[in-house]
Amino acid sequence: MSSTGGTPQSATRVLVIDDEPQIVRALVINLQARKYEVDAAHDGATALRLAAARHPDVIVLDLGLPDMDGVEVIKGLRGWTRVPILVLSARHSSDEKVEALDAGADDYVTKPFGMDELLARLRAAVRRAEPAGGGEDDALVETAGFTVDLGAKKVNRDGKDVRLTPTEWHLLEVLVRNTGRLVGQKQLLQEVWGPSYGTETNYLRVYMAQLRRKLEADPSHPRHFITEPGMGYRFEK
């Protein structure tokens, strides 16, 4: 297996959660070869315990676990951490993908999968969670209901910080940096999820719904996160 895209600069800790020993073994070997630190869990309860103890930088999660559904694990994690979660599953239906994304997953890879693709998506998930450096990151964008601090990567609504997942933040950041401009679906997908994306518009629907729920006064009649049907999305102050 070729090591495309290089190795992480410092040891990135990955938690692999899967009850298939051969998949866990393959992931551990490939990740360790690229200098990742890897912990593994074979069921949901162990996974939640390990996540709390080891504070991984990214999680690879199979949905079909012996003791609980993977979506429950995502919800359990999202109660206290924004760590990127990459779902690995044999479930192919769009509804199940949306359910996992809705619960707080950042990406979704269906089995069987190519190791290089999985590793590329894992790198992208880790990148999205890293603070961006330099440039105009000190910009503060204010609306009537909430404030977006691009430098601190924080959103404040009614005097309280709003917790966003790394993917929710990245999507918000792209839209806010293009205030008043239509950002096309393909451009959004590629900027937030990576260059191999372009048709997964259900991802955008799910994440825009999440942002509206968290930030709009009336999510069903959004003032700030505007859909241009069939084209893309626009952020308005």
UniProtKB/TrEMBL annotation:
Could you tell me which residues form the DNA-binding region?
A: 138-237
Chain ranges of the Response regulatory domain: 13-126
Sorted alphabetically, which keywords does the UniProt record give?
DNA-binding, Phosphoprotein
Modification 4-aspartylphosphate, positions: 62
OmpR/PhoB-type domain location: 138-237
Q: Which InterPro entries match?
A: CheY-like_superfamily (IPR011006), OmpR/PhoB-type_DNA-bd (IPR001867), Sig_transdc_resp-reg_receiver (IPR001789), WalR-like (IPR039420), WH-like_DNA-bd_sf (IPR036388)
Q: List the Pfam families hit by this protein, alphabetically.
A: Response_reg (PF00072), Trans_reg_C (PF00486)
Q: Give the highest taxon in the source lineage.
A: Bacteria
> What is the protein's given name?
Response regulator
